[in-house]
């Protein structure tokens, strides 16, 4: 090695590599060589896949996860926790206790209580009242557990979404899907282990950090799939580039990256190789899974899906295909549930029923297909937002439209399949839906329960970073597996 080459190697060594391997050039060289050897397969020619399937350390009830994330926070009073007493008191000043010492996002002064403008009816498998705006829910209510006692400590959208989906209200931490694929790998080498789809005309408020891999290796980050246009941006070859030519280019690039890794030992170099190879395989596999024009007219009608359009219905049908093909974690974000009542675009009378119509039929079809194919047995399905809504009318700036402010103290969600009870209701709130009455479940409890169902001990499932043993459930003691909802 020439003096110039040694100088270039030292300059290119990452801070992480330098601190990990020691302070001498000899240690860097020896460590990098060892890492390069361990990362190759038995033949010495292929990198071991970071997304290869892994067995969980504990018995698992779920093999895969589908998270239906309603970005903006649907009001629990108009969905799964209606309050007759609140309807009786509609238009009266709220009790002082609801606002005294409370930090509210937009409500000013002494607000009035707001009864729900929408009807509810009893859902017999659960024995509770549920909004009539969700008729399709009745078709699969027998398979879900409704949790009416969720709570969080964040009352603004982005921090609340970050806390729920990454375990920390600040950016930079791995998402739940990244943790799952890091621990379990993928069941299909030709598809990503973690796929994200977005509908509603906007990204969720928390942005792309919600499917980031954070400090985990980058091959575990979520891959965003689209239901209109190219399913994955920048995966298709440019015009004039044949597949054999692409293969030769990737082989040359792989050799360059291997050489770089042998010198510097940066694990992200191996991640880069793996991502290029996955993208190459995805060029064939993704179109086969995402081509909705191949679905029968009956299937498209049951979901309300239209090939080529961007919609939540299309995303639900794609989610079914991805889960069937072995994707470990699928997350659908649907934006537009922030029902403040500042106008027709976010009110309870016009906008909220429209949002319910957009999701009701496709979720019912998806749940029906998962149950019919047996996938629901080992697929954990979650539905909900990042927090709840107040029992008070927001009336921001004197608005006459009906809407509710942010409410972190209680909200509702449902879970199904993958080891949870069927036809069950957990927790309850007070007569106004303002606070939890019994059996509280924090967002960290939910995270612990998801990890438990996937076969991990949430206390010991951790990753060393910055001198700490990082966990999805956070550093503090307290999060628990909600055993009361387990089958």
At the first level of CATH, what is the class of the largest domain? Alpha Beta
> What is the share of helical residues?
25-40%
Give the CA-CA distance, first to last residue: 62 Å
Instruction: Report the order of strands and helices.
Output: HHHEHEEHEHHEEHHHHEHEEEEEEEEHEE
CATH superfamily of the largest domain: Alkaline Phosphatase, subunit A
Total number of helices: 13
Structural class: alpha/beta
CATH topology of the largest domain: Alkaline Phosphatase, subunit A
The overall pLDDT average reads 87
Silhouette = globular
Gyration radius (Cα, Å) is 24 Å
Q: How many strand elements?
A: 17
Taken together, the total number of domains comes to 2
CATH architecture of the largest domain: 3-Layer(aba) Sandwich
The biggest sheet, with number of strands, parallel, antiparallel or mixed sense and barrel status, is: 9 strands, mixed
* Oligomeric assembly: single chain
List low-pLDDT spans. Answer: 1-13, 16-45
Strand content: 15-25%
């Amino acid at each position: 090695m020439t003096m110039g080459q040694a100088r270039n190697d030292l300059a290119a060594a990452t801070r992480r590599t330098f601190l990990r391997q020691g302070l001498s050039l000899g240690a860097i060289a020896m460590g990098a060589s060892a890492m390069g050897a361990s990362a190759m397969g038995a033949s010495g020619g292929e990198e071991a896949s970071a997304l290869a399937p892994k067995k969980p350390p504990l018995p698992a009830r779920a093999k895969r996860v589908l998270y239906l994330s309603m970005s903006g926070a649907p009001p629990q009073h108009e969905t799964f926790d209606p309050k007759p007493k609140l309807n009786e008191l509609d238009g009266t000043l709220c009790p002082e206790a609801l606002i005294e010492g409370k930090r509210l996002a937009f409500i000013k002064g002494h607000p009035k209580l707001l009864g729900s403008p929408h009807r509810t009816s009893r859902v017999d498998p659960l024995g509770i009242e549920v909004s009539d705006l969700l008729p399709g829910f009745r078709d699969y209510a027998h398979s879900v557990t409704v949790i009416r006692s969720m709570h969080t400590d964040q009352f603004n959208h982005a921090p609340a979404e970050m806390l729920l989906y990454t375990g920390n209200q600040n950016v930079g931490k791995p998402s739940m899907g990244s943790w799952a694929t890091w621990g379990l790998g993928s069941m299909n080498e030709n598809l990503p282990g973690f796929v994200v789809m977005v509908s509603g005309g906007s990204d969720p408020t928390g942005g792309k950090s919600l499917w980031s891999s954070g400090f985990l290796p980058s091959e575990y980050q979520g891959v965003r799939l689209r239901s209109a246009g190219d399913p994955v941006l920048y995966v298709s070859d440019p015009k004039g580039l044949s597949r054999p030519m692409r293969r030769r280019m990737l082989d040359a690039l792989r050799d360059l990256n291997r050489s770089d890794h042998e010198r510097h030992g940066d694990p992200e170099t191996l991640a880069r190789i793996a991502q290029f190879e996955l993208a190459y395989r995805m060029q064939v596999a993704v179109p086969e899974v995402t081509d909705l024009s191949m679905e029968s007219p009956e299937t498209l009608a049951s979901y309300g899906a239209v090939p080529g359009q961007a919609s939540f219905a299309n995303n639900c049908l794609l989610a079914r295909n991805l889960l069937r093909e072995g994707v470990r974690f699928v997350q659908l974000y649907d934006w537009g549930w922030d029902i403040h009542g500042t106008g027709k675009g976010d009110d309870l009378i016009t906008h909220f029923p429209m949002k319910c119509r957009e999701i009701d039929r496709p979720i019912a079809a998806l749940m029906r297909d998962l149950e019919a194919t047996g996938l629901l047995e080992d697929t954990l399905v979650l539905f909900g937002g990042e927090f709840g809504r107040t029992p008070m009318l927001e009336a921001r700036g004197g608005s006459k439209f009906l809407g509710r402010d942010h409410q972190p103290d209680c909200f509702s969600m449902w879970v199904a399949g993958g080891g949870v009870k069927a036809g069950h209701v957990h927790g309850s709130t007070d007569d106004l839906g303002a606070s939890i009455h019994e059996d509280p479940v924090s967002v960290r409890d939910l995270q612990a329960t998801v990890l438990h169902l996937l076969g991990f001990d949430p206390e010991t499932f951790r990753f060393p970073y910055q001198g700490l043993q990082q966990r999805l459930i956070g550093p503090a003691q307290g999060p628990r597996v909600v055993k009361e909802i387990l089958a």
